[in-house]
């Protein structure tokens, strides 16, 4: 059995992912995790170093849909060049889960959001934004993906304990066995419980419509304001997220988190390798996630591309 370096285990690698990987591939390539996606370029991490990456020509030639391209959180087989400053992605490992959304238009196509998520934090705010039907749609999609759901009721400082208990009972009426936590980024209540829940090596995501407090919660978990927040309208209780790309955040505790800025329309579509049923989704979602170590993106790799062309 192939031995997995501790540095990969620390960022969530599971030995079971190797079941469908030929032994000879592990002899020729190195395992890495996709830490960021910027349009057609990637950042991969080995748990120690973050390296700018691109796809081998075979993937580009054989790809028949967006599902064939790497997403944040994907495990990939790579080769490294030029003193580990460039990586070539040769193959994707099977996914445990995949978060994606339908692209606008009549054509049934998808935009990849993130892969291999362990737990989804579904955020609902305890103000006018509270919506059981929206929550129910998120729960169904997370359940279909085999991802563990946890409901976070944000902005608990706006209600007294009795009113919070009523909201919790309403959630339990549609999901009796689900774990529910109330929190307030304003007074700090409930935040320690969330941090204690997040285990090293596990990947989490934040889901919810705009204005429910995901960005503020994310900044609190990270420990610094890496994302800006925008004002929430008191009339509509709507907010907007200021981020535009997909990255992976590794917290000081060793847990990892994917933030999915939301909208006030339908939730995203989740799928797993066991169920690829196509579901329409009209969310305008973006993901902002990244490793806290500085990421150096190389501006040009033309000489290196020529040297590795034979591998394509």
Structural features, described:
The chain has helices at 6-9, 23-28, 57-62, 132-144, 161-174, 191-197, 214-222, 302-307; strands at 30-38, 41-45, 50-55, 75-81, 86-92, 98-102, 110-115, 119-125, 148-154, 179-182, 203-207, 246-247, 249-250, 256-259, 269-271. The chain has 312 residues and is α/β, with parallel strands linked by helices. The protein has a six-stranded mixed sheet, sandwiched between helices. The protein is elongated and about 60 Å long. Residues 229-244, 268-290 and 292-312 have low confidence and may be disordered.
Short description:
The chain has helices at 6-9, 23-28, 57-62, 132-144, 161-174, 191-197, 214-222, 302-307, and strands at residues 30-38, 41-45, 50-55, 75-81, 86-92, 98-102, 110-115, 119-125, 148-154, 179-182, 203-207, 246-247, 249-250, 256-259, 269-271. It has 312 residues and is α/β, with parallel strands linked by helices. A hairpin with a 5-residue loop joins strand 13 and strand 14 (256-259).
Per DSSP E runs of 2 or more residues, the count of β-strands stands at: 15
Compute the separation of the termini in Å: 28 Å
Looking across the biggest beta sheet, what order are the strands in? 10-9-8-11-14-13
**Mean pLDDT figure:** 78
Radius of gyration: 20 Å
The number of distinct helices, counting runs of at least 4 residues, comes to: 8
The rough form would be described as: elongated
Write the layout of secondary structure elements.
Blueprint: H1 6-9, H2 23-28, E1 30-38, E2 41-45, E3 50-55, H3 57-62, E4 75-81, E5 86-92, E6 98-102, E7 110-115, E8 119-125, H4 132-144, E9 148-154, H5 161-174, E10 179-182, H6 191-197, E11 203-207, H7 214-222, E12 246-247, E13 249-250, E14 256-259, E15 269-271, H8 302-307
């Amino acid at each position: 059995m192939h031995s997995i370096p501790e540095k990969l285990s620390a960022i969530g690698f599971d030995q079971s992912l190797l079941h469908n990987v030929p032994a000879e591939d592990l002899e020729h390539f190195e395992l890495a995790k996709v830490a960021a996606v910027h349009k057609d370029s990637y950042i991969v991490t080995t748990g120690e170093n973050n390296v700018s990456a691109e796809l081998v020509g075979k993937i580009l030639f054989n790809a028949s849909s967006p599902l064939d391209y790497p997403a944040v959180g994907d495990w990939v087989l790579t080769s490294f060049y030029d003193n580990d400053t460039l990586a070539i992605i040769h193959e994707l490992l099977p996914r445990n889960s995949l978060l994606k959304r339908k692209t606008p238009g009549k054509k049934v196509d998808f935009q990849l959001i993130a892969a291999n998520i362990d737990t989804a934090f579904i955020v609902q705010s305890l103000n006018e934004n509270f919506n059981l039907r929206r929550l129910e749609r998120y729960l169904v999609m997370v359940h279909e993906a085999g991802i563990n759901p946890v409901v976070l009721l944000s902005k608990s400082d706006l209600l007294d304990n009795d009113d919070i208990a009523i909201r919790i009972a309403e959630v339990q009426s549609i999901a009796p066995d689900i774990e529910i936590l109330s929190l307030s980024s304003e007074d700090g209540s409930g935040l320690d419980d969330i941090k204690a829940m997040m285990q090293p090596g596990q990947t989490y995501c934040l889901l919810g419509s705009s204005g429910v407090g995901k960005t503020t919660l994310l900044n609190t978990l990270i420990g610094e304001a890496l994302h800006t927040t925008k004002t929430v309208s008191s009339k509509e209780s709507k907010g907007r997220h200021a981020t535009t790309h997909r990255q992976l955040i590794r917290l000081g505790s060793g847990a990892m988190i994917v933030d999915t800025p939301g909208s006030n329309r339908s939730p995203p579509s989740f799928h797993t390798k066991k169920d690829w049923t196509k579901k329409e989704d009209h969310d305008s979602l973006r993901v902002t996630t990244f490793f806290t170590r500085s990421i150096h993106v190389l501006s040009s790799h033309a000489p290196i591309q020529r040297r590795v062309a034979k591998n394509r």
